[in-house]
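I am hoping you can look over what I have pasted underneath with an eye to the fold:
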Amino acid sequence: MNRTEKAAVIEKIKASAEKSSIAVVADFKGMPVEEMTRLRVKLREANGELIVVKNTLARLAFDGGVHAVIKDNFRENCAVALGMDDPVAVAKAVSDFAKTSKKMEIRHGSLEGKFLSADQINALAKLPGRNELLAQTLGTLNAVPTNFVSLLANTIRGVLYALKALEEKKAA
């Protein structure tokens, strides 16, 4: 690989890293291609991508960017998972895959510029995702007017039953 190719790779990684909210570094030593492909598919479903690159190029690409806190920790075989939208979804995909794969181990990561250990990434993966949180918020917001309407309906219903009972009493 000559200098221009290396510069192109560095710029591509730097552009992807700048758009991402999370970067997870994992060890994949000895992982078969089929497993790596399954991980790439899972990450694509979570709107993320997996980058396998030489450590020197990764250090140069992450230097001075959002995820600069991880640039000095690239050693041995590294794969970097980048998440564009929902950091929890990417953390979940990598964490779940690491649990099922014997060859992959999460090392560390960066969430919007803050260093995360492997345990913190696994804890992040246990949180509900963006869509789940939006659904919970919408349910909570919807419950207030629904309960208010039910309360008003029950009050009016009680008055209606009392009037109906008076009408039946006078008719008898």
Q: What stands out?
A: Residues 3-127 form a domain with the Alpha-Beta Plaits fold (CATH 3.30.70.1730). The CA atoms of residues 108 and 120 lie 8 Å apart.
